[in-house]
UniProtKB/TrEMBL annotation:
Gene3D superfamilies: SCP2 sterol-binding domain. This is SCP2 domain-containing protein. It comes from Alloalcanivorax gelatiniphagus. InterPro entries: SCP2_sterol-bd_dom_sf (IPR036527).
Length: 123
């Protein structure tokens, strides 16, 4: 439940930034990326579509995401996201252990990481 809530709030934040933050809007120029976050079993899933000036978010699985972040389970995803604020290596450790898997173009994931300063309100 906590993982789903984080994904929902993230969608609201991304959409708000796309409408109101000039620096964030600039990052969306020339983008057409669908980023999906999900658990291995797909029971908790949400995707975000980044386009110039817009970010849309929907629950469930997207038929053709550009990149997917797969987490072992919802509890693990929540703990990892919470820990990543203090330990930037939390994602890498999860990937090395096989608890987080990336499917699709990892360049899109790297691009998304550049948006974290906007999401956190530090830009």
């Amino acid at each position: 439940m906590k993982f789903r809530l984080i994904l929902l709030v993230l969608g609201w934040r991304l959409a708000w930034l796309a409408r109101r933050h000039p620096g964030f809007r600039q990052q969306l120029e020339h983008r057409d990326v669908v980023m999906q976050w999900r658990t291995f079993d797909g029971r908790a899933a949400r995707w975000y579509h980044f386009r110039p000036g817009h970010v849309n978010s929907k629950h469930g699985l997207h038929p053709n995401p550009s990149v997917t972040l797969n987490f072992k389970d919802a509890d693990y995803a929540f703990r990892t996201l919470k820990a990543s604020g203090k330990n930037q290596m939390a994602f890498m450790e999860g990937m090395q252990a096989g608890h987080i898997k990336v499917e699709g173009d990892p360049g899109h994931l790297m691009w998304f990481m550049t948006l974290m300063k906007f999401i956190a309100g530090k830009a």
